[in-house]
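Summary for the steering committee. One of the milestones for this cycle was to obtain a three-dimensional model of the protein with magnesium ion bound, which we needed before selecting residues for the alanine scan. The sequence and ligand used are listed below.
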Amino acid sequence: MPKTTISVIKADVGSFPGHSRTHPKLLEKAEKLLRNEEGKLLIDSLVTHCGDDLELIMTHTHGVDNERVHKLAWDTFMECTKIAKDMKLYGAGQDMLSTAFSGNVRGLGPGVAEMEFEERGSDPVLVFMADKTGPGAWNFFLYKIFADPFNTAGLVIDPAMHKGFTFEVHDLFKKRKILFRCPEEIYDMLAYIGAPSRYVIKHVFRNDGEIAASTSTQRLSLIAGKYVGKDDPVMIVRSQSGLPAVGEVIDPFCTPVLVAGWMRGSHHGPLMPVGLCDANCTRFDGPPRVICFGFQICNGKLIGPADMFDDPAFDRVRNRCNEFADLIRAQGLFEPHRLSLEEMEYTTLPSVEEDLVGRWENLPHE
Ligand code: F6R
Ligand code: MG
Ligand code: MG
């Protein structure tokens, strides 16, 4: 049996109204294009959205970074961009930073999380998709899932997990990576991943080498050199039988974690776990949202999805997120609701400063 690859590739190619949600016509088109490839390039596919992001979930046997699979995603986004432009949807084609495809979608705008593995007897997989935040948003949750025994009892109780997990952390500014073997190096790792605008967890491996999680890490602003939309990341997590249980993987989302990326990519807000029916951004273009689809993988087939956050068990965190949103919104654009100056990706401040530059006077030395 060949190994199975799961590729989750996403882009915002236009939405309505404003940046709130993907139009059904785009979902239909993408679904059709991917379905045409089932039994050929792909084994299975599923198209969905989180807020204004069009999400393509694909399974196949061609490994990660496969040119043909990435080209299919690219062409699909291009076709959807055409529809978005015809309908004058908002931000039509905004994440397609290049006009030409070259080898794979990395660096061209779309976000991608992929993993290849040998299917176990039974392989539950969870796919997380977020809107109005950036790739570092997963850091907290991955730490809780794979390194915190107060979240994941299996780290202590399950002998297959007892040796811990290794985290691959990327430095998005200096374009370098490092591996932290946990639990031994938890303190070293936390020194970095607590700064999620720069350091993001890309992969997690069980310490015997088995792949456990993979995330998208692209930051459009770092690619384009200016603000061109939020990065709205995706993440794949494998689960059970020597990996964290499904319930251990989703439990950390009961904490209303503050993430960067709300309105204009320039505000902190609580990341709210929602079912697909609520995966539409509204208030202040948010609050930031995350959905989770659960599958069993069967010879590459996606058995599912189960809409994991569509559950009253997550009502309380949603209420807390709304309370938190009220509190922090009351601060208007005062930090820390608004991001710090260094992190502000999208701001009229530089042009305001240009106008005022001549009016600043130096202070005398004290
Ligand atoms: C974009 C986003 C939105 C926009 C905001 C202003 O991902 O989340 O909050 O930044 O709606 O958009 P423009 O400048 O296009 O009017
Ligand atoms: Mg948008
Ligand atoms: Mg988005």
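Key point for the committee: The chain is about 25% helix and 25% strand.
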